[in-house]
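BUG: 3D viewer hangs when loading the predicted structure for this chain

Environment: internal workstation, default settings.
Expected: structure renders.
Actual: progress bar stalls at 90%.

Input used:
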Amino acid sequence: MAWSYRKRIKVIPGVHLNFSKKGISTSIGVKGASINFSKSGTTVSTTVLGFSNRYKISNTQSRSKYNSTPSHPNVPINESYFPDENIFSADIHEITSQNMQGIKEAIILAGQQKNELTSDLRKIIRTLSVTKTKKILSYIFLYGFINKDIPKNSDRDIKSQQEAIDQTRKMIEKCYVNLEIDFDHEIKRKFEKVYETFQKLTASRKIWDITSARFQDRVAMRSSASTIVSRREVHFSLKTLPYIKSDYQALYMKNANGADIYIYPTFIVMYTNENNFAIIGINELNFRQTYTRFTETSTVPADTKIISKTWAKVNKNGTPDRRFKSNYQIPVVRYGNIRLTTQTGLHEEYEFSNYELTEEFGKAFNEFQSEFR
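Structure tokens produced before the viewer hung:
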């Protein structure tokens, strides 16, 4: 009996982002059926047998509460800026924006389809191995020489199975959400500035994820620092999520105590794995770039500026406490600081050894994000 393989796959919807002076719109779907999200509302467009239909399913004339969020100036922040808390985001399943649910479902579909096809591929490879073994055995036990149809049928099956393997591998390569982005010239310039300054920021000698902060009684501890922070070194880079294909790689921020952050032009992905991720509209993001005066008890990174000095044990007025014979000076440095929060539960904070690069990225990001407001 001849072997055959047919696999029908679902069409994975693409995502089209359009940036213009009128605003930003997002379309999700395939040729003939799509959903469009914009400031004026959500509309569904269909084309069947040459007849087009377009109707609105929601209206958002009033400005979003997120769009009215004021931008924060770059102001100096002392250690007391940090609240007494652990710094981490809410459960990943609670963070996704409502109008980003369609993109999330498209990514889930791409992941599920890839897993199904990968499973099929393993089965076909095992079947091919069995077919080749049968052909070899037919010659060993001579019946392949007696009945010429046996090796002939095996050759036909082997060819079909190899074709099925090639076809399945090609389908696996297409299991992604195609992210198409159209920028107005000025908006594109602003985003590419974000891209450029982020790449520079990744070169900071040290990047830390601030995971917690607590108040310290300076007088009782004879210290110049009013806050104790816990931080873990992480890295930033340009990176691509496995199920999104785009001309632009995401701005990747490693998260030390939760899902990693991937920033695309109009949305943020909090990603742990293909079944555990959230998507947040970038217009909902509260982005704050500041600097921190930090009493550095460890080695000062090479790209950090020392702005003053203090003592390991100090009096209330900042002078060295002479009661401690082994008292020594400690550098006070200026680090860059970025805080990302949303009302849906995103809450992350990062510190950078190079303040100037942090400031440059912060200004570029605020200018780009202003296009959403």
